[in-house]
Specification:
Length: 269
């Protein structure tokens, strides 16, 4: 069994100014996306300029934050919102949802497309390869904060199991790191190389939806379900798996449509 590396959640403290690790992870996520997007824009044949890249990252960041918060309230803790509506605005108390953030980013892309007269999947296919590293940083932030820990594990079978500060006195899977590796790093590698060659429009977005949905569903088998929800269906399906299932189905349909459409314009994301 490993010892959980208790890290001060406050990375920098200068008088009244406190910078938390989770905030730094968000900055790394958006900064990395901006850098990778500018790198790809220079190699793209789809006329991406620096201003468009900056706007896309900014709109996407707003979609992540607003959508992630609203999604958490709607999907995971709607009862608390009904009891205390102002809780929605107290983002410093924690609570973000990837699936809500995904919907927020979709709306942000729609706004961006309207502003720059671009097609939705032209933008989505360009942008989704930069998302997984941001997810990786976010999960590392969860690990540092000692939150969203995994299910109980036998140290004899899982020698890297650890006791989390707020997870009781039993060893658990470090599921945040599983998610960082799968939904983050591995999905990034898959998307980066897949999108490095011309693909039919919608195909890159489809691979992202399927890849995330599959990896998230697998990792959920090791993650402790949210206490206020438990399991959603069949006595084993978590809320995260339930929300990821439509992503896998929609992604599969999009991939088939992308490769079957003879008039689909191939592009380099």
């Amino acid at each position: 069994m490993l010892t959980y590396p208790e890290i001060n959640p406050i990375a920098i403290e200068l008088g009244p100014l406190k910078v938390h690790w989770y905030g730094i992870m968000y900055l790394l996520a958006f900064g990395t996306a901006w850098g990778l997007a500018n790198y790809r824009a220079k190699k793209s044949s789809n006329n991406w300029d620096a201003q468009q890249v900056s706007d896309l990252i900014f709109f996407g960041a707003m979609g992540v934050i607003l959508g992630g918060r609203c999604g958490y309230v709607l999907f995971y803790n709607f009862g608390q919102f009904l009891d205390d509506p102002l809780w929605l605005l107290r983002v410093w108390e924690g609570g973000m949802s990837f699936h809500g953030g995904l919907l927020g980013v979709a709306l942000a892309i729609a706004y961006f497309c309207r502003k720059y007269k671009r097609s939705f999947f032209d933008v989505a296919d360009f942008g989704v390869p930069f998302v997984p590293l941001g997810l990786m940083f976010g999960r590392i932030g969860n690990f540092i904060g000692g939150e969203l820990w995994g299910r109980m594990a036998d140290p004899a079978v899982v020698p890297w199991a650890m006791v989390f500060p707020h997870g009781g006195d039993v060893p658990r899977h470090p599921s945040q790191l599983y998610q960082a590796a799968l939904e983050g790093f591995l999905l990034f590698v898959i998307l980066w190389f897949y999108s490095s060659r011309p693909r039919p429009q919608k195909a890159v977005s489809a691979v992202f939806l399927m890849g995330y949905g599959i990896f998230r569903s697998f990792a959920e088998f090791f993650r402790e379900p949210d206490a206020q929800i438990g399991f959603d269906a069949f006595g084993w399906m978590s809320r995260g798996q339930l929300l990821s299932l439509p992503m896998i189905i929609i992604g599969a349909i999009l991939l088939v449509v992308a490769y079957r459409s003879p008039k689909t314009e191939e592009q380099k994301a």
